[in-house]
């Protein structure tokens, strides 16, 4: 049976071009020109690969990528992101968006097909297993059960505190800007929100996980930039 690829990209000529090439290689291709349609298609069927442009009208590619990763049915599918030159690449792969690979535009069709083949050959990642639990020093985060344990006693967290700590523990030692944290924890509808929301939630979280919340050693402040989880 032909392997099936979902292609989400708003540049119609590029979509037509890529779809043609992929079909010529024997793949079945389904296309969407915006994020919402892409999301409906991603949820409605199963695919062997999703190719997502980052800049899309409406729902953007990074948010869509994260929604697919959080979807119980679609979460295991390999995802390749298409990005314009100059985009911060760490936001795509390094920082837990969940993409497996990315290609910087403009790219050659040969390179594109090679990347597609790599993802098709790759043995499926057991993301569910990899994400079940995160540990650092005496902290253990049970992702599936949404519980935090500190030296084996449970620490009660609010939903947002839990999401915030998950982002930090998935990216130990990386400096995360408030913008990035807002996107990761509050999603793409964060725009009306004040960035100080992040500071407030960090303060609450510190009270629960720091030995001395006034002298934090686990979540440290990087002045003028954001916060870092000392993993
Ligand atoms: Ca685009």
Topology record:
Blueprint: E1 4-8, H1 12-24, E2 28-32, H2 35-44, E3 49-53, H3 61-70, E4 79-84, E5 101-105, H4 109-121, H5 127-130, E6 133-136, E7 139-142, E8 147-150, E9 153-155, H6 159-170, E10 175-177, H7 178-186, H8 196-209, E11 219-222, E12 226-229
Parallel strand pairs: 1-2, 1-3, 3-4, 4-5
Antiparallel strand pairs: 6-7, 7-8, 8-9, 10-12, 11-12
Helix pairs in contact: 2-3, 6-7, 6-8
Bound molecules: calcium ion (CA).
Calcium ion is lined by residues 10-11, 53, 55-56.
Give the CA-based shape.
elongated
- Count, helices: 8
SS content category: alpha/beta
In CATH, the architecture of the largest domain is 3-Layer(aba) Sandwich
Q: Indicate the radius of gyration in whole angstroms.
A: 19 Å
The average pLDDT value, as a whole number, equals 86
Helix/strand order: EHEHEHEEHHEEEEHEHHEE
Our measurement of the CA-to-CA distance between the termini, rounded to an integer number of angstroms, reads 44 Å
Number of strand segments? 12
Q: What molecules are bound to this protein? A: calcium ion
Total number of distinct structural domains: 2
Unreliable spans are none
Strand-residue fraction? 15-25%
Overall helicity: 25-40%
CATH topology of the largest domain: Rossmann fold
CATH class of the largest domain: Alpha Beta
What can be said about the biggest beta sheet?
5 strands, parallel
CATH superfamily of the largest domain: Response regulator
Main sheet strand line-up: 2-1-3-4-5
